Task: inverse folding
């Protein structure tokens, strides 16, 4: 079975490529390398360097494939506020073109990278998939629009689709002694930022007066290997025409200070921090209800915060 991994040069996509290959799948990758890295793609993968906005490149990439894991997209919240058209174009129009080409070529199965940002500032925590999404930025709006597009496509054109709504993804995978990890620029994810914090560039804590036990925001983290395992379960469950939204997270909330404490423990010194004011649009608490993933995918995470911090630390500080 050959899987097209869009965005397979990126952090999560490249991890998916590695795990799919280890499970005996054949893999094709479509990526424009705008935020991804070609050197993350192994030689035995069919790589098409191109955009999901280019129908010819999509057609080429889909040739010989049986299903799609769709990771490609723009995913910086602050950039989405500055450039909402870029997010509408790449994330929504790009997915529309991908689905159009899948329909044309008779491909029916897709697993999509949705996001907890579709929920905005949810009223219920842990948040179930039934929570009405009210995104607070164009990135979240674009992901919600694609979830809705997939729902329509399943009823109109009979595709079988799952939107996996990730919370915060962290950790890294070691392949033959080499770490495959986040290489975002700029890096906006808390764990790598905390692990790179230096006395002259301390990591910022955005808000210390949130209505949480230690005053800092609470988030849910999932290890990238557990996340990809959820994708494989989702892929294997695709069958009848349907669209299902499934949260993928740890199901546990950790405050920013708890992440910093775990990271200080992993590195063996106190990580420098500086208090900053709240960022607009940040919810105080965002934690996944993962009961649907447990029941429909028979999946639950097996790695904890300590594993995520340790693996990310090893990828950043390989001598440790
Ligand atoms: N990392 C997280 O914590 C997180 C959380 C929720 C959802 N997601 C979603 O998961 C997916 C992967 O995230 P990531 O952290 O690996 O990001 P990433 O930036 O590392 O990977 C995205 C990949 O998509 C490629 N890409 C971007 N625009 C493209 C285009 N027009 N055509 C072809 N390829 C294009 C990039 O070059 C990159 O390789 C994204 O859709 C993101 O929104 C990530």
Result:
């Amino acid at each position: 079975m050959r899987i097209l991994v869009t965005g397979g040069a990126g952090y999560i996509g490249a991890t998916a490529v590695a795990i799919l290959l280890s499970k005996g799948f054949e893999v094709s990758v479509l990526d424009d390398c705008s935020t991804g890295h070609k050197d993350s793609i192994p030689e035995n993968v069919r790589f098409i360097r191109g955009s999901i906005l280019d129908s010819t490149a999509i057609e080429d990439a889909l040739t010989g494939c049986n299903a799609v894991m769709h990771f490609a997209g723009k995913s910086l919240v602050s950039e989405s506020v500055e450039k909402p058209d870029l997010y509408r174009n790449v994330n929504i129009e790009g997915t529309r073109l991908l689905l159009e080409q899948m329909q044309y070529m008779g491909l029916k199965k897709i697993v999509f990278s949705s996001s907890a940002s579709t929920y905005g500032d949810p009223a219920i925590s842990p948040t179930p998939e039934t929570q009405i999404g009210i995104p607070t930025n164009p990135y979240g709006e674009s992901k919600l629009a694609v979830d809705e597009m997939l729902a329509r496509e399943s009823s109109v054109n009979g595709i079988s689709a799952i939107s996996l709504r990730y919370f915060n993804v962290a950790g890294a995978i070691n392949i033959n002694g080499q770490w495959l990890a986040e290489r975002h620029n700029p890096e906006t994810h808390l764990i790598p930022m905390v692990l790179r914090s230096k006395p002259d560039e301390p990591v910022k804590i955005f808000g210390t007066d949130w209505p949480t036990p230690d005053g800092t925001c609470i988030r849910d983290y999932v290890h990238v290997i557990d996340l990809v395992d959820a994708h494989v379960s989702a892929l294997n469950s695709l069958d009848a025409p349907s669209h299902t939204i499934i949260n993928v997270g740890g199901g546990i909330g950790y405050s920013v200070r708890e992440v910093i404490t775990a990271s200080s423990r992993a590195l063996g010194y106190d990580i420098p921090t500086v208090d900053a004011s709240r960022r607009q649009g940040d919810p105080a608490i965002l934690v996944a209800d993962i009961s649907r993933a447990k029941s429909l995918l028979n999946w639950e995470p097996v790695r904890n915060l300590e594993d995520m911090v340790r693996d990310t630390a090893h990828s950043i500080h390989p001598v440790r």
